[in-house]
């Protein structure tokens, strides 16, 4: 388990937080992952497509507006990189 924790700690240096967003209208629901970088930019990935990058925004508000425009809803909570180190 120590090597997994070390791997997470190394990856956590490249991102600040992540959130899951879901489109509840579809079944099964479509899930996207929003990753906030330490520089303030945010990237949105599709876990169902090998974590393919969908779009990048310069800030959290722009990424959030993009998701809300497509009627995605944020899953409660955030995973902070500092919590897994």
Structural class: alpha+beta
**Shape, please?**
globular
**Estimated radius of gyration:** 13 Å
What amount of the residues lies in strands?
25-35%
Rounded mean pLDDT score = 83
Distance between the termini: 13 Å
What does this structure look like?
- It is a single chain.
- The chain is of the alpha+beta class.
- It has three helices and six strands.
- The chain has helices spanning 2-12, 60-69, 81-84, and strands at 17-23, 30-36, 42-46, 52-57, 73-74, 79-80.
- Strands 1, 2, 3, 4, 5 and 6 form a six-stranded antiparallel beta sheet that branches.
- The two termini are 13 Å apart.
- The model has no long low-confidence stretch (mean pLDDT 83).
Q: Key terms for this structure?
A:
globular; 29% helix; single chain; 85 residues; 3 helices; alpha+beta; six-stranded antiparallel β-sheet
Q: How does the SSE layout of this entry go?
A:
Elements: H1 2-12, E1 17-23, E2 30-36, E3 42-46, E4 52-57, H2 60-69, E5 73-74, E6 79-80, H3 81-84
Antiparallel strand pairs: 1-2, 1-5, 1-6, 2-3, 3-4
Concise summary:
The chain has 3 helices and 6 strands.
């Amino acid at each position: 388990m120590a090597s997994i924790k070390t791997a997470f700690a190394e990856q956590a240096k490249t991102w600040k937080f992540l959130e899951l967003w879901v489109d509840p209208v579809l079944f099964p629901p479509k899930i996207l992952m929003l990753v906030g970088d330490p520089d303030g930019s945010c990237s949105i990935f599709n876990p169902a497509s090998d974590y393919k990058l969908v779009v990048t925004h310069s800030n959290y508000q722009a990424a959030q507006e993009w998701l809300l425009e497509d009627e995605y809803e944020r899953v409660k909570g955030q995973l902070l990189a500092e919590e897994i180190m």
